[in-house]
Amino acid sequence: MAYANISHTLPQEHVTEIINAINLINSRLPFLVNLNEKERQRVRKIAPRDTERTDDILFALTNHADIFPASFDGAEYQRDLALHDHVIEFKQLIGSLADKLYYTELALGGEIMKATSQGYELVQSAAKTVPGIQGLAKKMKERYKHSPKKPKDETPA
């Protein structure tokens, strides 16, 4: 793996600040929507290659506004384009952060499970000689007997 052991303590003050920042982001984006599966299928998708088309319409709106009927809201079109660009930027930034969170969660889980396996072995070994730990060892053994086997090679690549 390309990372060393993750060892960090996150102060509660930082946790609160991060949660507040996420809540602030949500409050600043009140227009965000959820689409159900049918709605997602029905909506016409915009692809990166479509930017030339949207640029052409924007050019026409700017230079030949008289060809558009009053029912075509050019100002709304321009607001939608600008907002779409911002949403894409936010999505990329938050997507990158989400990826880092996902992989950090995965790595931390791996570290925790490796240490848990080591701890289990230590408790099982101690149960042979340390009075009062046999009950815990028995309970753990019963629980672990139903767990999937750990990978053969746990050494980092």
Explain what this protein looks like in three dimensions.
This protein is an all-alpha fold and 157 residues long. It has five helices and no strands. The longest helix has 53 residues.
How would you summarize the topology of this molecule?
Blueprint: H1 12-28, H2 37-42, H3 51-63, H4 74-126, H5 134-144
Helix pairs in contact: 4-5
What brief labels describe this structure?
mainly alpha; 5 helices; 64% helix; elongated; 157 residues
Uncertain regions spanning at least 5 consecutive residues: none
The average pLDDT score comes to: 91
Q: How large a portion of the residues is in β-strands, by DSSP E?
A: under 5%
The beta-strand count equals 0
From the spread of the alpha carbons, the general shape counts as elongated
- From the alpha carbons, calculate the radius of gyration and give it in angstroms: 28 Å
The helix/strand class is mainly alpha
H/E element order = HHHHH
Largest sheet: none
Helix content: 55-70%
**Number of helices in the DSSP assignment:** 5
End-to-end distance, in Å? Answer: 6 Å
